[in-house]
Design brief:
- It is a multi-pass membrane protein.
- By secondary structure, the protein is α/β, with parallel strands linked by helices.
- The chain has three domains: 185 residues, ABC transporter transmembrane region fold; 114 residues; 242 residues, Rossmann fold, CATH 3.40.50.300.
- It has 19 helices and ten strands.
- Strands 6-7-8-3-9-10 form a six-stranded mixed beta sheet, sandwiched between helices. A four-stranded antiparallel beta sheet has the order 2-1-4-5, with helices on one face.
- A hairpin with a 2-residue loop joins strand 4 and strand 5.
- Helix 3 runs antiparallel to helix 4 and helix 3 runs parallel beside helix 6.
- It is elongated and about 115 Å long.
- The two termini are 49 Å apart.
């Protein structure tokens, strides 16, 4: 299906503005620009040698009439020389264009990825990953095809058409006018007809893809199909889709038949008409000999083929200009201020006192809904602050704001008495670690995933973090131990194992501020016990902000904040909150402990 997506890329209107935007691609060619221009020179030479070919063929045929064998040998050798030159020029043209394109696109790919990684979370909350993936794959592939072959071919065909008409005019103006009246018209009609047929072919392929979806769904959910005794329903559904495919395919076949008839009648008819008129003019003496007539027919064929190809290439160039615009849209997005030169630099340690002062916030995508309203709380160094409340109350938003994923609407967030916006972003985040509810691991080894918290960590540091996180035993149980591949997003590990890897990662980073976002809510009792023990080790000597769903995990917190509808409505220890009559915390607690 990826191929269809590429073919379906939207086209941009070609005007001076869109072309100007597209030419910005040369900025990324850096010191490879010269290859494009030298490639253009070889393109001109290739076209010139191509234009000489029909003329020389005509002269060769004329040698039959003149019975001049020496001249025939001379022309044949010249033709062979031209073919050799054309082969050499084509080699340099193609290799130079490919070299220019690949170097330019690798720079664009890198710049695009670098910018994407640095973009703020507010950007990702409004974009789909699939769409961004398509920009890097389909759009860049479109540019690759265009710069490697399409532009060169487009220019070559253009030169052949113009040069061909000039030479035809010198052979016979009358014959040229007659050819102009029919060949381009038929060639353009053939292109339009061909495009219509391809559209029909694509319709058939789309319907086949839809039928495959039915098969996939049915087989994946076969237990449901059997349980509902709905085999007849699925069979009927598939049969109807197959009928649609047959109907469209037969119609497409008929159109292809019309197209074949059109080509035979019109295109070959054109050749017959041009040859007939040429012979007429030759007999009248208006065209010099049979050689000129042969040259004329060959030039006509060249021009007809070029007319056919140039329309398709123009459409490809339109798509490429559209792709360039979409790629540059992403490149122009404003990234976060991340200092690339800081790689490996030591993080300046902060103590870890956190203070929210009248913080209000709305997500950029839905500004009318206030998620947090005048939130005030302080977490002193080493304190465990728990945040509880119903779903959608804004608990996870607090951790996102502390990590500066989003900009607050009003108020202030202070760390060690200093506004978080006055900190270097990497330094601020370098002092924090988050253990989320849904841990996403990268597809490498367990060692690489733990070391993500500190890429230059030694083996001893990684092993110690694994032991402290209660991960050592299960890791050592694997045949490949720390070299075990975790699979995409960590699918080869259980939820509890993934959680302990995330805790080891956080321990290795040695943060001053720790955020636990419902870190045990999706685990079974045994895993929860092991993870909870690891979390206790992790929280020691740090400021911990615990977003909790299970209240059993936060009974020992220094302070519990109850967040409801974006506001802190209750605050205190477990004992203090449990004694509040009709309190939200007390109700939540009664519900959970009566069910357990």
């Amino acid at each position: 299906m990826a191929r269809f997506q590429e073919n379906d890329l939207p086209k941009a209107k070609l005007d001076s503005n869109s072309l100007q935007k597209a030419l910005r691609i040369f900025k990324y060619a850096k010191n490879h620009k010269w290859k494009f221009f030298v490639g253009l020179l070889f393109l001109l030479l290739t076209s010139a040698t191509a234009l000489a070919f029909p003329k020389l063929m005509g002269m060769l045929v004329d040698c039959v009439t003149n019975k001049d064998l020496d001249k025939a040998n001379e022309i044949a050798l010249t033709l062979m020389g031209i073919l050799v030159l054309q082969a050499v020029f084509s080699f340099f043209r193609i290799s130079l264009f490919v070299n220019f394109t690949e170097n330019s696109l690798s720079n664009i790919r890198f710049a695009l990825y670098e910018n994407l990684v640095k973009l703020p979370m507010s950007f990702y909350s409004q974009k789909r990953v699939g769409e961004l993936n398509s920009r890097i794959s389909a759009d860049i592939s479109q540019l690759q095809d265009t710069f490697t072959t399409t532009i060169a071919e487009f220019l070559r065909q253009f030169i052949l058409i113009i040069g061909g008409f000039v030479i035809l005019g010198s052979i016979s103006p009358k014959l040229t006018l007659m050819m102009l009246a029919i060949v381009p018209v038929v060639a353009v009609a053939a292109v339009i007809f061909g495009r219509f047929i391809r559209k029909y072919g694509k319709k058939t392929q789309d319907k086949v893809a839809e039928s495959q979806v039915i098969v996939e769904e049915t087989l994946q959910g076969i237990s449901n199909v059997k349980a509902f005794a709905n085999e007849w329903y699925e069979i009927e559904r598939y049969k109807n889709k197959i009928k649609e495919i047959v109907k469209i395919a037969i119609k497409g076949g008929q159109y292809r038949g019309y197209f074949a008839s059109f080509i035979i009648l019109c295109l070959f008819g054109c050749v017959v008409a041009v040859v007939w008129y040429g012979i007429t003019l030759t007999i009248k003496g208006e065209v010099q000999g049979v050689g000129d007539l042969i040259s004329f027919v060959l030039y006509t064929t060249f021009i007809g083929a070029s007319f056919g190809g140039i329309a398709e290439m123009y459409a490809q160039i339109q798509k490429a200009v559209g792709a360039t615009e979409r790629v540059f849209e992403l490149l122009e997005e404003t990234p976060e201020e991340i200092n690339a030169n800081r790689k490996g630099a030591a993080v300046e340690k902060i103590k870890g006192k956190v203070s929210f002062q009248n913080v209000a916030f709305s997500y950029p995508s839905r500004k009318e809904i206030q998620v947090l309203k005048n939130v005030n709380f302080t977490a002193d160094f080493g304190q465990k602050i728990a945040i509880v409340g119903p779903s959608g109350a804004g608990k996870s938003t607090i951790s996102s704001l502390l990590l500066r994923f989003y900009d607050i609407t009003s108020g202030e967030i202070l760390v060690d008495g200093k506004n978080i916006y006055d900190y270097d972003l990497e330094n601020l985040r370098g002092n924090m670690s988050i253990v989320p509810q849904d841990v996403i691991l990268f597809g490498g080894t367990i060692r690489e995933n733990i070391a993500y918290g500190k890429p230059d960590a030694t083996d001893e540091e990684i092993f110690l973090a694994a032991k402290q996180a209660n991960a050592w035993n299960f890791v050592e149980g694997f045949p490949e131990k720390f070299e075990t591949l975790v699979g995409e997003r960590g699918v080869k590990l259980s939820g509890g194992q993934r959680q302990r890897i995330a805790i080891a990662r956080a321990l290795l980073k040695n943060p001053s501020i720790l955020i636990l976002d419902e870190a045990t809510s999706s685990l079974d009792s045994e895993s929860e016990k092991l993870v909870q023990e690891a979390l206790e080790v992790l929280m020691e000597g740090r400021t911990s902000i615990i977003i909790a769903h299970r209240l059993s995990t936060i009974r020992n917190a220094d302070k519990i904040l109850v967040l409801d509808n974006g506001k802190i409505t209750e605050e205190g220890t477990h004992q203090e909150l449990i004694s509040l009559e009709n309190g939200i915390y007390k109700n939540l607690s009664n519900l959970q402990f009566s069910n357990s």
